[in-house]
Amino acid sequence: MSVSDNWHRQQDEIVALQAIFGESAVEICEADGPQRSFVLHAPLDTCEARASIHFYLPETYPSSDPPIFEWISAHDSNADSVADKPGYVIPRRQLVLSKDM
């Protein structure tokens, strides 16, 4: 598969994520080289929590290499005041990705 084919398939995945989570939930990063990247700001269950995940797409993805991702933060706006900062999710409940914003 060519680099161009990989780029088009990557673009299809980004469009699919925008359709699921909303266009504003996918923040495309400026490319420093052949690797593309974006940050997904995805809602977590129904508790007004949100995760931010940075995805790096090598030019050989998806034909031969997997994407690389980095968990940036999760924030639960219903958390206790002690947890009232980005990067913390109160552990009293399990949080899961959701398509609801």
From TrEMBL:
InterPro entries, per the entry: RWD_dom, UBQ-conjugating_enzyme/RWD
Q: Which residues form the RWD domain?
A: 12-101
Give the protein name, as stated in the record: RWD domain-containing protein
Organism expressing this protein natively? Coemansia pectinata
